Amino acid sequence: MQIAENLVALIHYKLKDEQGNLLDSSEGQEPLPFLCGAHNIVEGLEKALIGKTVGDKLDVVVKPEEGYGEIRAELVQKVARENFQGIDDIEVGMQFMAEAPWGQQPVTVTAVEDDGVMLDGNHPLAGQTLQFSVEVTEVREATDDEIAHGHVHGEGCDHDH
């Protein structure tokens, strides 16, 4: 069976940045499941996996536009310290949920200055070319519930099937 829209695929993967630094891996863990066509994984990786079958191994280079996007300057801004009521120590690297016009947006503290806190709402991997090494371990039909909910059901799924 080939990976195609509305099928579930399980993959083992290693993710490296352009310099070859390991960023993430499924090594020693269960394979990563995704519902093809439901945007569960980055577009460039999903496109490369369409048509692949169990046992296929491939290396995929994903440019930012098909990964986590380019860095968007409008997602970086300074906010007043008063926005952090009840939080005494704010440090670079801390993450918070911020209210954006489109809903909740995760942001990362990039600097703490006398006149405010710099927040970055870009994905940490935005603007980066990603290098995936992937092995397909399983391909199966998706259930109607998985298709309706837009993701694979299994361990850690927090709603009724």
Structural account:
With 161 residues, the protein is mainly beta. The protein folds into two domains: 7-68 and 125-149, Chitinase A, domain 3; 73-120, Beta Barrel (Thrombin, subunit H), CATH 2.40.10. Helix content is 8%, strand content 39%. It contains two helices and nine strands. Strands 1, 2, 3, 4 and 9 form a five-stranded antiparallel beta sheet that branches. A hairpin with a 2-residue loop joins strand 7 and strand 8 (116-120). The longest helix is centred in the N-terminal third of the chain and has 7 residues, at 43-49. It is elongated. The two termini are 25 Å apart.
Question: What are the SSEs and their pairings?
Answer:
Blueprint: E1 7-16, E2 22-25, E3 32-35, H1 43-49, E4 57-62, E5 76-79, E6 95-100, E7 103-113, E8 116-120, E9 130-141, H2 144-149
Antiparallel strand pairs: 1-2, 1-3, 1-9, 4-9, 5-8, 6-7, 7-8
